[in-house]
Amino acid sequence: MTTVQVAKHTSPSGGREAGSLAKRIIPCLDVKEGRTVKGVNFVDLRDAGDPVELAYQYSKQGADELVFLDITATHERRKTMVELVKAVARQVNIPFTIGGGINEIADADILLNSGADKISINSAAVRNPALINELAAAFGKQFVVVAVDTKFVNGKNLVHLNGGRIATEMETEQWIKEAEERGAGEILLTSMDHDGTKGGFDNGLLKKVNDKISIPLIASGGAGNVQHFIDVFQQTDVDAALAASVFHYGEILIPSLKEELKKHQIEVRL
Question: In which domain, by residue range, is 46 found?
Answer without folding.
Answer: 24-263
